[in-house]
Amino acid sequence: MLFSHGFGCDQNMWRFVAPAFEADHHVILFDHVGAGRSDASAYNTAKYSRLEGYARDVVQIGRELGLKDAIFVGHSVSAMIGILAAAEAPELFKSLVLVSPSPSYIDDGDYIGGFSRPQIDELLESLDSNHLGWSMTMAPVIMGNGDRPELSGELSNSFCRTDPRIAREFAKATFLSDYRHALGGVSVPSLILQCSEDVIAPVSVGEYMHARMPRSSLVIMKATGHCPNLSAPEETIAAMKDFL
After folding, report:
1. What is the pLDDT along the chain (244 residues), one digit of tens a residue?
2. Which residues are known catalytic residues?
3. CATH number for 72
4. How far apart, in Å, are the Cα atoms of 53 and each of 46, 84, 95, 164, 241?
5. pTM for this one?
6. Within a domain: residue 127?
7. How far apart are CA 85 and CA 75, in angstroms?
8. In the chain, how many domains are there?
């Protein structure tokens, strides 16, 4: 099982989930370039201006480790990175677990991504002008679970540890992306884990993906917020084990 973290996070965000699968699987954790303990000198603006750059890294990891029929587990933007990686190297993965995924964050006609384009532009401008302020403001919104401030505090601290330039460019690659066209090409069984209340990826997004991914299963969790791997690990683990 290959676990891939979301924007502004690192592999530590899987610490409540990944150990539950170690008895039956070889668990692999990694940090995207620019996150956690990765080698930031490997960051290249041209490569990572689109999610395909991150997907190529996932494929490289899989091939270097000789993976075959692996289970890819991706949170948030890494869900789409996993879809792109599986399209490029289908021999590597036998299934996908997509935690709080979104193929596009911007509303478009009947598609409800959760944000208007002006809202996304404002979000990116705020991040560009005040990285620390953005981190402290957005972390509680993304995490939800206002009655558990320690969760948003951890997320905020994670955002703040990220290199501001890399964070800005990763945010653009994330929030301006539109990979709706890629959904129909997913050929492996996929689990979509959707929180019941998530301002970043509303329920309508999970339903949209499920309707367009022929081999997908959709689970609407009781958990709220965008990071059930932190806020509701037991429910996340149970849903994953039911799928696997």
Report:
1. 999 999 888 898 999 999 999 999 999 999 998 777 878 788 899 999 999 999 999 999 999 999 999 999 999 999 999 999 999 999 999 999 999 999 999 999 999 999 999 999 998 998 888 877 887 887 888 888 878 878 788 877 777 678 888 888 989 999 999 999 999 999 999 999 999 999 999 999 999 999 999 999 999 999 999 999 999 999 999 999 999 9
2. 76, 198, 226
3. 3.40.50.1820
4. 9, 10, 21, 19, 30
5. 0.93
6. no
7. 14
8. 1
